[in-house]
Amino acid sequence: MTRAAENWCWRGHRRQVCLALAATFVAAWPVSSWAQGWPTKPVNLIVGYGAGGGVDQMARALSPKASEDVKQPFVVHNRPGGGGAVAAVSVKAAPADGHTLVLTTSTTFTFDHHFAKADFTVADFRHVAIIGQFQEVFVSHPSRPWKTLQDAIADAKAQSRDLKYASFYQLDRVVTALLAKQSGVKITAVPTQGGAGVVNAVIADQVDFGFTGGTWGPSVTSGTIKLLASAPRDPLKSQSQVPTLRQLGYDVETEVFVTVSVPKDTPEAVVRKIEATFNKAAGDPAYAKFCEEGLQVRHFNLGEADTKKALAEQSERYAKLVTAVGNP
Amino acid sequence: MEAVIAGFGAALTPSNVAFVGLGVLLGYVVGVLPGFNRPTALALAVPLTFYMGPISGIAFLIGISKGSATGGAVSAILINTPGEASSAATCLDGYPLARKGRARSALLIALVASVWGDIFATLVLIALAQPLSRVALLIGPVEICAVLFFALTFIASLSGASLLKGLISAFLGILLGTVGLDAETGTPRLTFGQAELFDGLPLMVIAIGVLALSEMIVQMEERGQQQGTPLATGGDRLRAHEIRACVPVILRSSLLGTVLGVIPGLGASVASFLAYSWVRSTSSTPERFGQGALEGVAAAEAADNAVVPAGLIPLFALGIPGGIAAALIIGAFMIHGITPGPLMFLNHAHVLNAIYASMLLASVLMFAFGYFGSGLFARLAQLPLSVIVASVVFLCIVGAYIEGGTMFGVYLVLGFAVLGWLLRKFDFSYVTFLIGFVLTPTLELSLRQALILTDRNPYALLQHPIALAILAVTALAVWRMASRRRAVTGLATS
Question: Cβ(B283)–Cβ(B289) under 8 Å?
Answer without folding.
Answer: yes
